[in-house]
Design a protein that fits this description.
Distance between the termini: 45 Å
Strand content: under 5%
Largest sheet: none
Shape: globular
Order of helices and strands: HHHHHHHHHHHHHH
Helix content: over 70%
């Protein structure tokens, strides 16, 4: 993700057109498809870790996942995480650029502040925060599991809470000091990225093997559809709604920050404040996500134990505390 900023901004700058920054994406997607087809070995469904459970219908899988409290809470909480990540990915460079142009005003050297350079540096910051945040989160949860069996959702919840003030002051500092904004964004991204590997791990051990693929796919679909696919539009819509209330001297129509040199310092200030107020919604999403992670900590041990009992019983129908509450059909029993 972080490298995407760098590649996109450099390609767009080389061709002089922002569209070329997006035209790199299908090439990367094609390489991924080829790698999946020719290099990836996919084991039969449910056989990845030696389970003998027979797979059931997708509809029944979805019903079972909907009754899994830890899974539902994890999906909702992770959607809040992707909401923040998507908003920062899409609007972060434009926001920092508008803040820098607003703070610089008409001083000498302001023309050296370009969206391309800001995007490049923002990409470096997000790359480093991801490279460090993901393993730090995973390592922390593995250490704490020895003392706290429900450490995984607790680590997710508290790191998400800790990122709220960091991100908040990062939004405030963008038009005062760009280096400080980069530093705070790095630490906020590090805390935010600490959740990714842990959430994937939890999804796998609270769900039985035949349902793990559909559980992961459903989580990816819901979290990205309502998270990082939705937040950029919502942030932009809120920013546009705030602009009329922040316009003082200027009566020019709304413009895109990415069109460099088209705005005055006062108008850059309007753009910056409108985006700032809209991006504050990320802080509310972080608090909400942390709440759902912390609530999840009350259920995850029971749901993990239930999944383990089902694996050892080799019967998919034993859903509640390992006790069969209805007759079993032939498809559910190990052959």
């Amino acid at each position: 993700t972080g490298l995407g900023y760098i590649v996109g901004s450099e390609v767009a700058g080389a061709f002089g057109d922002w569209r070329w920054g997006l035209r790199v994406t299908p090439i990367m997607g094609a390489l991924a498809v080829l790698a999946i087809i020719f290099l990836m070995t996919d084991p039969p469904r449910g056989k990845a870790d030696g389970s003998h459970l027979k797979p059931t219908s997708p509809l029944r899988d979805i019903r079972s996942l909907a009754c899994n409290k830890s899974y539902v809470l994890s999906v909702v909480a992770f959607t809040c995480v992707t909401y923040c990540a998507g908003a920062m990915m899409w609007w972060g460079p434009n926001f920092a650029y508008a803040g820098a142009k607003s703070a610089c005003g008409n001083k000498a050297g302001c023309n050296e502040i370009t969206l391309q350079s800001v995007s490049y540096k923002f990409g470096i910051v997000m790359t480093l925060s991801g490279l460090l945040g993901v393993p730090v989160g995973s390592y922390s949860s593995q250490i704490l599991r020895h003392q706290f069996p429900n450490a995984d959702p607790l680590v997710c919840g508290f790191t998400l809470l800790a990122s709220v003030p960091v991100l908040y002051f990062g939004f405030l500092s963008a038009n005062y000091s760009l280096p400080l904004c980069y530093a705070l964004t790095f630490f906020a991204g590090l805390l935010l990225n600490a959740n990714w590997s842990i959430v994937s791990d939890m999804t796998l051990y609270i769900v039985i093997p035949p349902r793990r693929s559909i559980a992961s796919a459903t989580q990816i679909l819901v979290s990205h559809m309502l998270g990082d696919a939705f937040s950029p539009y919502l942030i932009g819509a809120m920013a546009d709604a705030f602009k009329p209330y922040m316009r003082h001297a200027s009566h020019r129509p709304n413009q895109i920050v990415g069109v460099e040199g088209s705005l005055t310092p006062e108008e850059y200030d309007v753009e910056f404040k409108a985006l700032q107020y809209a991006l504050f919604s990320c802080c509310f999403a972080q608090v909400l996500g942390a709440f759902f992670f912390l609530v999840m900590s009350f259920y995850i041990i029971d749901d993990r134990n239930r999944a383990e009992r089902l694996i050892h019983s080799d019967v998919v129908g034993a859903e509640a505390e390992g006790v069969l509450t209805r007759p079993i059909d032939a498809a559910e029993v190990r052959p």
